[in-house]
Every structure is written in structure tokens, then in C-alpha cells.
Design a protein that fits this description.
Blueprint: E1 2-6, H1 19-31, E2 36-39, E3 42-43, H2 51-65, E4 70-73, E5 76-78, H3 81-89, H4 91-94, E6 101-105, H5 115-124, E7 128-132, H6 138-142, H7 148-152, E8 156-160, H8 161-164, H9 170-181, E9 187-189, H10 203-213, H11 215-231, H12 251-255
Parallel strand pairs: 1-2, 2-4, 3-5, 5-6, 6-7, 7-8, 8-9
Helix pairs in contact: 10-11
The structure holds fe (ii) ion (FE2).
Length: 258
């Protein structure tokens, strides 16, 4: 499995506090069957994104772990005016391995103003935005149809592996499964921060997805699509996304009688 969202870098953000924890997380990931990790430190008004420092940390981890696991670099990108302008000017700086796929994290509450235009601007600059864990955003939990215009224009969706098992509560679990059942999801990633509170567990979520939605879906979401993003290629299994690409009102709209 290829994990495209993982706070593995030590002393960088709210992920691994030290090298020891980074190595323990990597060992746990290896045990889970993860072969590649994209290290994705936050870039936000709270967490400064420092590419040079990130590369140094990455080099230390690569040296310690050798061939046992492949490490890449990306970013957990928050929407701020400065971030967006900088990403448009330097798309390689924030995207996964500098090759175009960009993880975009929304605040837990609400949706930033002008987000539809922001996604478009990022795409025009050559990036493919990937919305991280919509099942954990309170606004999208109650109004998932807000994602439809974004997805119609090519936004991809990543959910958190833990959500599939209920680690973020019942509502997030329900929405994660609704998104999976309707084919809205292109990636499952761990969004790991440590080995205990938010560990890099993937095996059990993979098994649940394979059992409920089929082995092919699990392969696409845990292996094939993430591998394509890791290598900067178009994803081989794009979402069919029931209610998004069909004409007329989406099932969300019908459900809500809008
Ligand atoms: Fe994250």
C-alpha cells in the first residue's frame, strides 16, 4: 500500500515529535503492509512549511530506514491567501514529490470563501487538488453536495483510513462509507500523527473496503491511485462518483429535496 498522507517527519508539526517516534511509525507502517509513505507536513498559518528543513529530515529517515520503505515528500496544504499564491508560483514546492498532486486540508469547521475558484486556480497552475478527509469537516458532513461542482472539475477525494473503522466518530464513519459506496473516493490514507492516538493503520481498513466494496476497489484506493499520485501520473481508476457526473439533480439534492 502507498500512504499519501502521513505526518512522519520529526520535529516538524503536530506529527512525530522526535526521530524515535518517526522510526516507530515507519516500522508500524511496514508491518501494516505499507511500502511507500509520502511525508506531508502541514503548511498553515500555524505550521510553517520549510522545504529545506523537510528535505533534511527526510534524508535522515531515508538513511535510517534504507530500502525497507520508500519515502516521498508532499504537504498537508491549508487554504490561506499566501499559501495559494505561493503554490501557484511554485507548484512543485507543495505537491506530492513535486509532481502535481496537492493535498488540500479544510478547517474542521466551515469552508473557506472562494474555494471553488481556488481549486480552479490551483488546477490552472498545473496541480491536481486532492481534498483530504471531507468526512471530518462539519460543513461537508451535513452538506456533502457542496463537493459536487469541485468534483465535476476534477477535484479528487481522500478519506482517512481510521474513519472507515469509526475512529473519528459515527458521523464520519457513516459519511466515509457513503462516499465509498457511491464511488466518490480516489484515495484512502492514514493521516498518521503518532503510533498510539493516530497510528498508521491500513491493513484492517483495506480488509473492510475489500469485503464491503470489492477487492478491486480496495486495490484502486490503497495501491493503484496512490501509486499514480506518488509518481505524478493521472490516476488509473478515476471515481465514477454516483450523483456527480450524471445529468440533473444529484441524489444528495434529491434526498434533501433541493
Ligand atoms: Fe494531515
Amino acid at each position: 500500500m502507498i500512504d499519501i498522507h502521513h505526518h512522519l517527519l520529526f520535529e516538524t508539526d503536530d506529527g512525530a515529535p522526535d526521530l524515535e517516534m518517526s522510526l516507530a511509525m515507519a516500522e508500524m507502517a511496514i508491518d501494516e503492509g505499507i511500502t511507500h509513505i509520502v511525508c506531508t507536513p502541514h503548511a498553515s498559518s500555524h505550521w510553517r512549511f520549510d522545504p529545506k528543513r523537510n528535505q533534511q529530515r527526510l534524508a535522515v529517515l531515508r538513511e535510517k530506514l534504507g530500502d525497507r520503505i520508500q519515502l516521498g515528500l508532499g504537504c498537508d496544504f491549508h487554504i490561506t491567501y499566501d499559501n495559494v499564491q505561493d503554490a501557484i508560483a511554485h507548484p512543485e514546492k507543495y505537491s506530492i514529490n513535486g509532481k502535481g498532486h496537492l493535498l488540500v486540508e479544510l478547517p474542521d469547521h466551515g469552508i473557506p470563501q472562494g474555494l471553488t475558484e481556488t481549486f480552479y486556480d490551483l488546477q490552472v497552475a498545473g496541480m491536481t487538488p486532492i481534498l483530504t478527509h471531507p468526512e471530518r469537516n462539519l460543513t461537508l458532513l451535513t452538506a456533502p453536495e457542496r463537493m459536487i461542482p469541485w468534483m465535476r472539475r476534477g477535484l479528487l477525494v481522500q478519506i482517512t483510513a481510521g474513519s472507515i473503522l469509526g475512529a473519528f466518530g459515527k458521523s464520519s464513519e457513516r459519511m466515509a462509507h457513503k462516499l465509498l459506496a457511491d464511488g466518490w473516493v480516489s484515495f484512502v490514507a492514514t493521516d498518521a500523527h503518532d503510533t498510539r492516538r493516530r497510528p498508521p493503520l491500513a491493513r484492517k481498513p483495506y480488509e473492510v473496503v475489500a469485503k464491503k466494496y470489492g477487492e478491486e476497489v480496495a486495490q484502486a484506493l490503497f495501491v493503484l491511485n496512490p501509486r499514480a499520485a506518488f509518481n505524478g501520473r493521472p490516476i488509473p481508476e478515476p471515481p465514477e462518483a454516483k450523483g456527480v457526473f450524471e445529468d440533473g439533480r444529484s441524489w444528495w439534492q434529491k434526498l434533501l429535496k433541493r
